[in-house]
């Protein structure tokens, strides 16, 4: 005689399989996020470790002026373009209220509120700098790192911030 599982037995087996598949997917997701990054982006991310430490020790939100209030608490996708190889890499992080970088990860984050865009040469210069907080700030002021909002409200906010910043740079140099 064939064994026919009860309804509760069948549900238990299906739920168990679903949990196993979900667990494998959760474990595989970080690897997938890293695998879509070019080798230079993985190396850039690894090189950022000491830079982030130095940046966090030395950053002063007051040095960012009016931009500080706009950057505090933002969740950032930093997208770096390498025109020499026609590739793009990304690193994500959160800025705390003191503009220190937290939760630095390779790849983008789904809950990002802003996108910072730059090229590989600029990022290499920031990483190699003895004062990365100053180099980063200068790159933003010089439009070597651009900031745009993600989502309607943030997009409008950063359009206004960038426009006002451009006008002030034009007036005060």
Query: Which strands sit side by side, in order, in the main sheet?
Result: 3-2-1-4-5
Largest sheet data: 5 strands, mixed
Main structural class: alpha+beta
Task: Report the mean per-residue pLDDT as an integer.
Answer: 80
List the main descriptive attributes of the protein structure presented here.
alpha+beta
Describe this protein's structure.
It is globular and about 40 Å long. The chain has helices spanning 7-35, 39-58, 66-71, 120-128, 132-141, 152-172, and strands at 75-82, 87-95, 101-106, 114-119, 146-149. It has six helices and five strands. Residues 1-34 have low confidence and may be disordered. A five-stranded mixed β-sheet has the order 3-2-1-4-5. 55% of the residues lie in helices and 19% in strands.
Summarize the structure.
It is built from 6 helices and 5 strands, in the order H-H-H-E-E-E-E-H-H-E-H.
List the helices and strands and how they pair.
Elements: H1 7-35, H2 39-58, H3 66-71, E1 75-82, E2 87-95, E3 101-106, E4 114-119, H4 120-128, H5 132-141, E5 146-149, H6 152-172
Parallel strand pairs: 1-4
Antiparallel strand pairs: 1-2, 2-3, 4-5
Helix pairs in contact: 2-4, 4-5
């Amino acid at each position: 005689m064939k064994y026919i599982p009860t309804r509760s037995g069948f549900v238990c087996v299906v739920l168990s399989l679903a949990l196993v598949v979900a667990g494998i997917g959760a474990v595989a997701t970080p690897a997938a996020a890293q695998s879509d990054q070019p080798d230079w982006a993985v190396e850039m991310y690894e090189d950022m470790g000491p830079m982030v430490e130095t940046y966090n020790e030395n950053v002063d939100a007051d040095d960012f002026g009016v931009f500080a209030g706009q950057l505090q608490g933002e969740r950032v996708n930093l997208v770096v373009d390498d025109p020499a190889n026609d590739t793009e890499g990304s690193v994500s992080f959160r800025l705390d209220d003191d503009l220190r970088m937290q939760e630095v990860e390779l790849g983008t984050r789904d809950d990002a509120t802003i996108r910072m865009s730059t090229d590989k040469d600029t990022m290499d210069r920031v990483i190699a700098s003895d004062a990365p907080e100053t180099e980063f700030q200068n790159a933003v002021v010089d439009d070597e790192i651009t900031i745009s909002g993600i989502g309607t409200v943030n997009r409008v906010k950063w359009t206004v911030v960038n426009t006002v910043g451009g006008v002030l740079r034009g007036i005060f140099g």
